[in-house]
Design a protein that fits this description.
Blueprint: E1 6-8, H1 11-19, E2 26-28, E3 46-48, H2 56-69, E4 74-76, H3 78-84, E5 88-92, H4 102-109, E6 118-122, H5 127-140, H6 144-165, E7 173-180, E8 183-185, H7 190-196, E9 200-201, H8 215-221, E10 225-228, H9 235-245, H10 249-252, H11 255-258, E11 262-265, H12 278-289, E12 303-305
Parallel strand pairs: 1-2, 1-5, 5-6, 7-9, 7-10, 10-11
Antiparallel strand pairs: 3-4, 7-8, 11-12
Helix pairs in contact: 5-6, 6-12
């Protein structure tokens, strides 16, 4: 059977396809797909409708304005997609800010003549939903056994960390921040990761979208640990966000900042990308919450101490 021609319109899907052994079948990608190495050479089939550079508050305002007018912050490059001539397109239907929407993809292919392209829409909102997405992509690519192996590796690591964390005497109170200005807490699978890694999650609920967070609530909670994981930001960019926050007296008054328990992460590559590398994200969460118990070697690459704090 010939390798299906696959276009992935979000980074996590690209990683899923590659983990399933079908990376050679990719014929198109989103403008944000950057892993595994080599995917950068694929034709780019999406682009943002607005310039998403600038400060966090400026990006937030631009995104809210475009979402109020259209369905998605991103658009499909229809001609590029048509030339790629995929058999399978993998997209998402969870967040209009994260990638092109399912509706946009369906509109782009609706007038293709004799087209029987299969559109797979991922809807990950929780750890289990991520596993289900991997299984669905695997089934569509006739790779169900490989998909089961990928999920089993992720589940095994989750169970291993959970078992170790259950033996610990302390459960630090943890706030995970997905956006700095305005403040947004992390939802979806992140609250599950905090609890599995031996922490008490303060904001955001498992399986639900990331909620906005008010400064008074953060100050009242005064977390033991704060983890910065801005959506779309790599480690270097998140350090810049931490530098910005350090100018705010509210931020520097927090216990986690004063005691050196504030961390910055590569949220773009790991925590906010619901694919196989969520296993690494869980390992990082465990390293940050209980550094004396867990060490998987991610410090310095996936996460580090926030600037302006002394490592605890």
């Amino acid at each position: 059977m010939a390798e299906p021609r696959i276009v992935s319109l979000l980074p996590s899907a690209t990683e899923i396809v590659a983990a399933l052994g079908h990376g050679d079948g990719l014929v198109g990608r989103s403008h944000e797909c950057d892993f595994p190495a080599g995917v950068e050479s694929l034709p780019v089939c999406t682009r943002p409708r607005v310039d998403l550079s600038g400060s966090s508050i400026k990006i937030d305002l631009k995104v809210k304005e475009i979402v109020s007018k259209v369905l998605s912050v991103y658009e499909v490059l229809e001609e590029t997609l048509r030339v790629a001539n995929p058999d399978v397109i993998v997209t998402q239907n969870q967040c209009e800010v994260c990638a092109v929407s399912l509706t946009d993809v369906e509109a782009a292919v609706c007038d293709w003549v004799n087209s029987d392209v299969e559109i797979i829409s991922l809807t990950a909102e929780s750890t289990e939903a991520v596993f289900d997405d991997i299984r669905r992509v695997a089934a569509a690519l006739n790779a169900a056994p490989t998909g089961a192996e990928v999920v089993e590796r992720m589940q095994s690591r989750l169970a291993e960390i959970l078992k170790s964390a259950e033996k610990l005497d302390t459960r630090p109170r943890v706030a995970c921040i997905e956006w700095a200005d305005p403040l947004m807490a992390a939802g979806n699978w992140i609250p599950e990761f905090v609890e599995a890694a031996g922490g008490e999650n303060l904001f955001g609920s498992p399986g639900e979208h990331s909620p906005w967070l008010e400064w008074p609530d953060l100050l009242d909670a005064d977390p033991d640990i704060i983890v910065l994981m801005p959506c779309g930001y790599d480690l270097h960019r998140t350090v810049e966000e931490a530098n910005m926050l350090s100018l705010d007296e509210r931020w520097t008054s927090l216990r986690a900042v004063r005691e050196g328990r504030t961390y910055v992460t590569d949220g773009n590559a790991y925590f906010n990308r619901p694919g196989p590398r969520l296993k690494d994200s869980l390992e990082m969460m465990a390293e940050m919450i209980h550094p004396d118990t867990f060490d998987f070697g991610h410090k310095g690459s996936g996460w580090t101490h926030s600037p302006h704090t002394a490592p605890a």
